[in-house]
Amino acid sequence: IIITRTNLSRYGNVDLPVKPFDFNDEQWDLRAINPNFDFQDIKKSTVNFTLINQSWFKKEVKNYIQHLCKAGKTFGTIKEYLYSFIGFSYYLQQIELVGFHQINRSVMLDYLAQEKKIDNLKLGALRGFFTTGTLKGWFDIKQDIIRNDDYPQKFKGNPEPLSEKVRNQIEQNLHKLPAPIARMWIICFFTAMRPSELALLKKDCLIQEGQQWKLVWHRKKTNDEHEVPISRNIAKVVQEQQEYINSLWGLDWEYLFCHYHGLSRIDISHSELEPIKKVIPNNSTETPLNIAIRCLIKAENILDENGQLAQFHPSILRATRLTELFEQGHELAVVSAWAGHKGLATTSSYYTKVSCELMEKDAGHIQKALINNNGKPLLYESFPKSFWVNPIAHKLELEGTHINTPIYGFCGLPLEDDCQKFRACYTCPCFVAAPEKLSQYIKIRDELRGKEVNALTSGHDVLVEQFKQQADQLDKIILSLQEVA
Known about the structure:
Layout (H helix, E strand, L loop, with lengths): L4 H8 L14 E3 L16 E3 L6 H16 L4 H20 L10 H10 L5 H16 L28 H9 L6 H13 L3 H5 L6 E4 L2 E8 L4 E7 L1 H18 L9 E3 L12 E3 L11 H12 L16 H12 L4 H8 L4 H8 L4 H12 L17 H5 L5 E4 L8 E5 L19 E2 L5 H21 L2 H24 L1
Antiparallel strand pairs: 1-2, 3-4, 4-5, 6-7, 8-9, 9-10
Helix pairs in contact: 2-3, 3-5, 7-9, 7-11, 11-12, 12-13, 16-17
C-alpha cells in the first residue's frame, strides 16, 4: 500500500495524533483548532494551502478557515470552501490582481462568466468570505459584490424511491447478509433516518415509555433532537444491535453501529467481515450498508420493473419510507412530522413521490367538487396545470385551534404564487371544496355560528364580521355539495 496518513490510520485502526496548530504552516490539522469535531469528518481534517499563490489572499483565507473551524463548520464543508478559494486564486493570478482593493463587482462578473460550472456552494463560500472579512476588518469589499441573482437556479424534482417490488426482494433476502448490516437496513428504513444520522446513532437511542417505544437521535443537518415511535419488533432489533456492539467493545464505544473491513462486493455472506472501532464514513458509496445491499442485488439478480438490475444508495431509503407512509393513507402533516421537516412543502416536494394511481384517485374526488367558495361551478381550465398533475400539492389539511378555523379542501392558486388569505380559505375565490369533507364543513359552519353569537354578546364587532363571512361562505359550499350528492 502507499504510505499516506489516511492509509496508516485505516490499516492501523488508529487515529493519527493531532498535529499542533501553527498559523504559518501550509498544512493544518483542523482537529487542533476544533477538538469537538464530528468523527465522520476525521478523514477530512487536513487542509493544504500550497495551491493558493497570492500571499495576501492566502493570509485572509487562512483567517477565514480558522474562523469557520472555531464556529463548528464540518471539516468536509471547510475543505469544499477551500477548493473554491483555490479556484478563485487561479483566476486572480490570471488577471494579475495584487490586492483586495482591486476586487470589485466587475471582477466577480468576469470570473462568473469564465467559470464552466458555478454552484451555490462555490458562490456561498466566496460571499461568506467577503462578508466576514469586511466585518472583521481584514479588507474592505462592497457587500453587493455577489448578489442573489448570481446564484444558479436549482430545480429539484421528486425522488425516485425504491419500488415495492425491489424493496420486497431485498427484504426477503436480508437474512443472507451479516446480522449487523441487515439491522442497519431495518432501522434506517423504518425511521426514515438519513445515513449520516444512522452512523452517529448512539447506543442509548432506545427509550421506553410504558408499553411504548421510541428512537431518539441527534440530527447533524438540522442540529436538533428528533424522535419517532417504533414497534416492539424494531425495538427488539435495536436491542439485538446493542448487545452485539457491547459484546465487541462495551463502554469503549458509544455508537450503535461501527465500520467494517473485509466487505465483499461478490460474497453476500461477507465471510471476511471484521468490525473496526470507527464511525461509518459519511460517504454513501463506501458504507457497509451500500456495499452489502448492492452485493445482494447482484448476487440475487434483483431486477426492477424494466427488467434491469436494481439501483441502490442508502439515501433513497428515507424517500422510500416517507412515500410509503403517505401512500398508506397517513396525512401529509404526519409524514412531515415523521421526517422532522419544518414545513409541509419540503415533505411534499422532495420526499413523497405520489403514485399515478393515488393522483388519479384524488383527482377524481376533486373533479366532483369543482365548486368555489360561493358554491358556483368552476371550469376545468381555470386551474393551474400543477393542480391536475399533482393535486396532493394543493391539498389543504389545516387543523383548527381555539383561534383558527380548520381548513379542508384544495387550493386552486398556482404553487409559485403567494397566498394573501392564509387561514381564510373559505372566503377565497381559489378555494375548492372536497365532497368527502361535507360533514366537517357542516360542523365547522355550526361552530362558526356559535362563535359569531359569542362575539356579538361580547361586543367584538370585528370577530362577528370575521366569523359571519366564513359561515356564510360555508353555507353556500354546503348547499352546492348537498345538491351534487
